[in-house]
Amino acid sequence: MTMQNTKPADSETDADRKYTVPGLERGLRILMEFSAREPVLSAPEIARRLDIPRSTVFRILQTLESLGFLERGQDERYFRLGVAVLRLGFDYLNSLELTDLGLPIITRLRDSSGYSSQIVIRDDRHVVFVAKAASHDSYFSTVNVGTRLPAHATVLGRVLLGDLSLEELKTVFPEKHLQRFTEFTPDTVEELYQRVQEDAQRGYAISQSFFEKGISVITAPVRNDSGKIVAAISLTLPVPMIDQERLAQQHLVDDLVAAAMELSRQLNYRGDAKKTTHPFEKALGLR
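Given the sequence above, the corresponding structure tokens read:
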């Protein structure tokens, strides 16, 4: 006699669901109820649709509102999606745009220079590698897509912080003393700001084993259509120091800055409306 399988059909699902967070799941389900056809919903309507107690729905709505994912409609009883949802969507699309447009650019930069090239973005106090064209030689790099490094301790971060004022930097780094990784790490926000401004004026930055011994980095900013720094392109050299002769002979700075400008142009950066010279445009003699 063949034994029948008496295992409930949804038992595997139940096992998987034991690791889910009910409150988070409910919050996301609430957000997904909003659409172009129904941009405004009330708490009772959401509770009815999702079969969630009204008191629970109200608390979740209040939480989502406080975080900017929802906002009140003209009638205070109704909610609509807030700017935080749009920010998540645009950040995701921008990251896709950066990698899709930038990968061919850093691949050409890798091929012309012989060194690994990367695209990095800033996530609050860290830089994150989002694209990489690895060198063809035997040099092994521990930096891969997804690697996170402290922004204040790297030239990558200093370039990405180039738009921030001193007060804005203090908001990102409110502590009195910054964590030091090497003797080159700035100790205070004021010292960090000074270095950020120096790099911004130069239009690019060079690290001579400042963060990782035996590794030097050259990096330049990438700007979008509003002129905001949204990323940076870098070259990683497996040498402790980069002398000026090598920079001149291999055109490393010129090629790097040109790559950053190319990606900026593809992101619709057109420079200052008043036609003032941007530092890394000046470095290339573009204006």
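The mean pLDDT is 80. Try to locate this feature in the token string yourself.
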